[in-house]
Amino acid sequence: MKTDRSEQLYQEAVSLMPGGVNSPVRAFGSVGMTPLFIKRAAGDRLTDVDGNEWIDYVCSWGPGILGHAYPTVVEKVQKAVLDGLTFGACTEKEVVLAQMIRQNIPSMEKLRLVNSGTEAVMSAVRAARGYTGREKIVKFKGCYHGHSDGLLVKAGSGALTGGVPDSAGIPASYTEHTLVASYNDAESVKKIFEAQGEKIACLLVEPVAANMGVVLPEKGFLEFLREITKKYGTVLIFDEVITGFRLGLGGAQAYYGVTPDMTVLGKIVGGGMPLAVYGGKREIMDWVAPVGKVYQAGTLSGNPIATTAGIATLSVLMEHEEIYREIESKAGMLAEAYRRSGKVWVNQAGSLLSAFFTETPVRDYDSAVTSDGKTFGAYFRHMLAHGIYVAPSQYEAMFVSWAHTDEDIERTVQAIEEFMSLDGEDR
User: Fold this and answer.
1) Catalytic residue list contains 219
2) Which of 300, 319, 338 marks a domain boundary?
3) Which of 260, 288, 319 is the last residue of a domain?
4) pTM listed for this prediction
5) Is 278 helix (H, G, I), strand (E, B) or coil?
6) Residue range of the domain that includes 197
7) Tens digits of per-residue pLDDT, 333-350?
8) What is the DSSP string of 112-144?
9) Does the annotation count 10 as an active-site position?
10) Helix (H, G, I), strand (E, B) or coil at 200
11) How far apart are CA 381 and CA 400, in angstroms?
């Protein structure tokens, strides 16, 4: 595999950007390689600046459910560009996209378009605080909700401990109202609410935790969260940046049959363009400016290019609901290939999956980090050498798209089985 041009670009990038990248995981630090610089993508294939081609299971970290450069999406975006890139004013497309979202996710009675998942989560939390008049929030260890100061935290010494900043540059005071529970541990949540329930504005959760690898909610866990938040008058927020329109048109809340008070969407809803959404019950969203006292604004929010891509993508998904059955089935084939080895733990929800290099069942952050990072690095390099691109981090999801063919899945299964058959020295 030739990488001369990628290596040259990386050296230039290092002098210009921290670590040579604009998002840390792209640096390939955990797999001991120089990052690849991608030139183009089409269908389920990536091509880098050196001409190497891979079957892609990152799919831009989730948005590419139809595959890259889906023809009708590209065509509509190209046409929209001719009308102007941004207006800083209202457009019909904002209304159309909002209607499509509410049609498929009825719990989002009112919603607001923004530019990123981080922005959407931050705004949803602010709205919940404004609505309840409370300050404290609950999140889960290992769940990622963007890089806003109040949410970039890790657990303290116990479930009742406020969050400790997980990044330099965040004053401890910014996270003192962030309480951290353990995913799939109802007791840890119960203790927090018993101690401070009347002060908790919202509980924020990925219904399928997909930022510590894919970790599934255990039976009854989401239902428990719904019940306890109702009991204490706390706003339940589902972070569906990854699962929204990924597990189905109704997202994880339809997939698992649990309705939150607020929902955050991203990735697929923008069709690959920078767009995210937060919304929920009418009485909560009516606290958002200009009708309410919770301020949030954005120059590029709901811009006509992003909304065009979102409308085009959702239109295809709504017209072809069979997509979800197909990509879940193909993801299942990959999951089974990993399981046959008996050497990994695999979690799958719809077209999302993760293989952890541990024999320990992965149900939360602590069990996720038992995965062998050295073996994962060898696995990543093996797959890359066989023309298959997976996330360069153990703790990211694997995404299957509509563009993945049966032949691509078969080729990927063969590469998985070949790696699993190797002993430690051969890896």
Assistant:
1) no
2) 319
3) 319
4) 0.95
5) strand
6) 71-319
7) 999 999 998 889 999 999
8) EEES-HHHHHHHHHHHHHHHHT--EEEEETT--
9) no
10) strand
11) 20
